[in-house]
């Protein structure tokens, strides 16, 4: 008999990885290899976009780069990140407001791991699957804000700060991906200004995840534009080189916060992380060169805006409900006739394709999969056009349409499981 494991029994893989593993078991190859259709995946194209800047192919490493890194990040990278925000959004943050992590996830994890007990998280019902895992593992308390067809998956800002039933001790920290994953809904302009104003009120804060900052018609959307006093706030902005800068593999992300909160995060780094790889940080400095980013902003919006538009039209023509906002690189879709997104996925696997099931994005579901739980997003799914080349549009749409039609025909004939 196998001995009892010392590690947690409640540590399943994040929903997107779960789809990856199920796909591999069914198709026998990893998603992303030639001949597969990575519609479930959250990575962008990692090759030069039309009209976009080239991606650096090397970085110089000196003996100093083999020293231990600074706990809070490489001084050159912290400066480049601060300049990135100040140059584009007119803010005046300092390098001391920047904490560098090995990607977006570790930064978000660290913020939640050190939340005080009286801080309660508010999160949209349909959000990025990793948040559910992170909130569970860090024992964060959270309540879900309704995301429904009726509110268009875009509740008002005030819904995140609703204090009904709370006593004065409870402080509120909404977590919002903006642009949203999986919905693409984006708070910008006056609506974002109002959100930040609420976040700066006493007893309030926000973790605004801006991983998809560049994927919006405005070519850049960040709450930093409206922050009045970062150093006297509990505003946390999460950013990364993962999406708009097209480099998920270098594992560079950051948290922008008050100097005091950055100090806490860097103290954590001193014993829990040991800083972040110098070669990766130096590569990120190259990526953030301002004239390069200016080109990237144009190219990202042009390419992904075009893909959002034409995939949306194709899905509408197939009879799907399209509930996507105006940002990101996902479509948020509803199957017709109460079809089941899990069953659709199993059928797609056989053709080397996969989507992300809506249930995985359900922040109210049990953490470990429970077959008895019926999610409101059973017929919903996320389709990613992030990694897709423009040339595969017709074949992707044709394959998706064929599998959907077969599924509908099987249901009509009573053959579907
Ligand atoms: C909402 C959201 N935040 C952050 C990230 C960044 O994750 P990482 O840099 O850890 O890959 C992602 C990537 O999928 C994301 O979708």
Low-pLDDT ranges: none
End-to-end separation = 36 Å
Bound molecules: pyridoxal-5'-phosphate
Question: How does the helix and strand content classify structurally?
Answer: alpha/beta
Please give the count of helices.
Answer: 10
- For CATH, the homologous superfamily of the largest domain is named as Type I PLP-dependent aspartate aminotransferase-like (Major domain)
Count of beta strands: 11
Overall morphology: globular
CATH topology of the largest domain: Aspartate Aminotransferase, domain 2
The proportion of residues forming helix, as a percent range, comes to 25-40%
Sheet of most strands: 7 strands, mixed
- Name the helix and strand elements from N-terminus to C-terminus, one letter apiece: HHEHEHEEHEEEHHHEEHEEH
Average pLDDT, rounded to a whole number, is 96
Going across the biggest sheet, name each strand in turn.
1-7-6-5-4-2-3
Q: Approximately how much beta-strand content do the residues carry? A: 5-15%
How would you describe the overall organization of this protein?
With 417 residues, the protein is α/β, with parallel strands linked by helices. Helices cover 33% and strands 12% of the residues. The protein contains 10 helices and 11 strands. The chain has a 7-stranded mixed β-sheet, sandwiched between helices. The chain has a 4-stranded antiparallel β-sheet with strand order 8-9-11-10. The site of pyridoxal-5'-phosphate has 13 residues, from helix 3.
